[in-house]
Amino acid sequence: RCQLESCRTSSSLGGVQAWTYAYSKGSNLQWHEARQWCQKHFVDMVSIKNKEEAEYLDSFLPHNPTYYWIGVQKVAAKWTWVDTSKPVPVEAQRWASEEPDSLAGQDCVELYIKRAKDSARWNNEKCSKLKEAVCYTASCTQESCSAHGECEEAVGNFTCKCHPGFLGLHCKEAVACKALTDPRQGSHHCVHPNGPNRFNSSCRFHCELGFRLVGVSQLACQGDGQWNHPVPQCEGIMNCSHPISTFSYNSTCEFFCDDGYELAGQNQIRCDHTGQWTAGTPACSGNMVCVDPL
Fold first, then answer.
1. pTM over 0.85
2. Residues 41 and 16 in one domain
């Protein structure tokens, strides 16, 4: 069984954050059992980071003759916050009078509650003694993170671990890729499920008649903010020059074939003085991709 309560308290950094607590009732737990109970049902054992938190718990928790275990333990001869594994600074240690004592084996810490003397203060005890547990409760809710992130508990708070391609405090923003431009003699069309040029945007490229696409025709915006391929280019399958006027004397046309096809015929023809092309339109074996200038 446990009781729940919310409060607002100054953090150890001087800010303010909402912390919610729970405590066991009638459990009679050793220190390690008390911590396991907190981790199983809630987040972790309360570590007491400042005076305000200790004083709030003194007013909130019911009287218990054996008091309450907290998340401070002696590790390698140093009093340590077990939730962060960091030594407790001397100025943050809130020992009762004449504590901590040096008796062997008293390596765990209890919080005095509703005591005539030294209430809301610490006392070191043997970890095998039986006491109640006081815990931080979960901060994550369904609204904590968007559908693109996972809520991860922290003491008195939470963080959103974003899925690949998303960022921000609540993972609501999709990673952006550089805006794309049309290739010369071509165009592109995009679908943007998460906003213009953002993660999972897909763009397909097309070339004008008489031009072929060189490169990958469809690009996707990736989670690292880069398009998965370079922008393709449009190259003419027939490239003509007209020194006088279109398809007049001395106009020259050059022909190309797509990769994997072989040009059959002359790759360049010219309009001569008789108004005839110097050769017929060549072909690409297996597929005709050239345009007859006539």
1. no
2. yes
